[in-house]
């Protein structure tokens, strides 16, 4: 998740005070064995298992139970929260991952697209740079992110591996 979207979901603003920023770190990371695809008619992606792909993302630390509850509601029933292993990046390469230098392996929680909803995914990968350039502004406005989110239908949480 892009840090600005995280702050908007968890704190209702993308430009949080330094005291809140100090609570969290965001480290570039790779999730092996998954692909990030476009969700038909949506701005956001869904990741699904795929042994031949890797997903670039952020490893976030400092998350509280309250943060996780808000994220579960935000992600909703289309997703299952799973515990996985990611590789932190010591150096970030280009958009295709050329030049990435992988470092430490960490356990992380990710939202995997629920198998019951996979027919909603397109056959092409989701483009993070396109999202940042053209759509992120919509997702980082105060009060916006919970439009249409149902607190009675949060993401499912799988037992830790």
TrEMBL record:
Organism name: Podospora anserina (strain S / ATCC MYA-4624 / DSM 980 / FGSC 10383)
Cited Pfam families: GGACT
The keyword Cell inner membrane is assigned to this record: no
Family: Belongs to the gamma-glutamylcyclotransferase family.
Listed name of the protein: Putative gamma-glutamylcyclotransferase
Keyword Transport: no
A GO molecular-function annotation: transferase activity
Top-level taxon of origin: Eukaryota
